[in-house]
Design brief:
Blueprint lengths: L1 H15 L5 E5 L3 H6 L15 H7 L4 E6 L15 H13 L3 E6 L22 H21 L6 E4 L12 H4 L13 H21 L4 E6 L5 H13 L6 E6 L1 H4 L2 H14 L4 E7 L22 H15 L5 E7 L55 E3 L4 E2 L7 E5 L2 E5 L1
Parallel strand pairs: 1-2, 1-8, 2-3, 3-4, 4-5, 5-6, 6-7, 7-8
Antiparallel strand pairs: 9-10, 9-11, 11-12
Length: 412
Amino acid sequence: MKKLILLTLLTLLSMTAPAQKYVGGDISMLPKYEEAKVVYKDKNGNTVSDVIAFFKQEGLNAMRVRLFVDPSQDSDKAVCQDLAYVKALGKRIKDAGLQLMLDFHYSDTWADPGKQWTPDAWKSLTNSQLYDKIYEYTKECLEQMVAAGATPDFIQTGNEISYGMLWGTKAAVGNNDTNRCYTNSSSSNWNRFTTLLKNAGKACREICPNAMIILHSERTPKPSVLTDFLDRMKSAAVDYDIIGLSYYPAYHGSLNTLETAIKTLENKNYGKDIMIVETGYSYAWALGNTTYNYTNTYPYTEEGQRQFTADLITTLNKHDSVKGLFWWWPEDNGNKSVTNGWWNAALYNHDTGKPYAAFYELKNFVGEGTGIPALKADDADSGWYGLDGRILNEKPESKGFYIHNRKKVIVR
């Protein structure tokens, strides 16, 4: 009888355990398209009433949402994700049974390697006050997310922060190197940066102890810069779980470039999982300011986009360290009333409302199974298992979710 009960419990666990690998997209603009009455369809032309439920039905299991401090300061229509917006969208994602990645921009506008501007409301704060502010802000946001039923499973403490964050306002800093963090920057710049990250991470651990913290860099084509960044994080004892990478062929190069970056990270033995938290490839036109032409291999067509996606997944699935793949802005449907333009690497056909073929490739990153199969009742209680059902020889050193003593546990 005890064995039967135990087996039943383990079977239930297999139905609810989070996937070890995660695939989805940054759908931060979805509510705006829905407000504009954009019609989403499936490949057969049937109208989809619940887009997030449809994503799950088609094999996606996680979604990413960005958060700005005060997006009203920016005129870009795509910069609209304040806390109220993100709480509502985050709750929908969680209610649908998907994992949620929260991407803190710590800015009023787009934060990327060339733009890490301090929010207007924080511009007069000293460094010491900023250390307190980033902790308080992160904590308050997460407390509200939890209270709203939108607890994040993954948290990016900054977006593409290869050269630091919270540099100051654009008007005050301009092109000066104040607070930026290059390889040859002063130690005070790096100390300032890592202190900000530590305080943000502290809030994450306090409010969302089960969430995995991601440090996000886009230096995929420059492994030496990427490893210098991560070496400094290690030396400063910055607490995080996952290395997040951006990879866009139009700006970062071929799949061989990505392969080199992943192998370099694996060889450095940081003990961290890797996620591609942003990617995309065009279906028709070149992306703006493209620096690498991959069209001889992958033409700008629906089939070219699909083949790139399939080959990207094949590349990533050769590496056990890679646990996530997120397409950026897949839901763009070309409605110009919603944004200032459109994203040429979306996964929806602007004319038909149907998903492009690449959309249906994404689920192949996680494969058929997205949870641990039921363990046998006579399996040893002290065993360690991956969420894909693999029996491990000993306690894993890599960060992630596992099964131990018949319970889900997180190894940090």
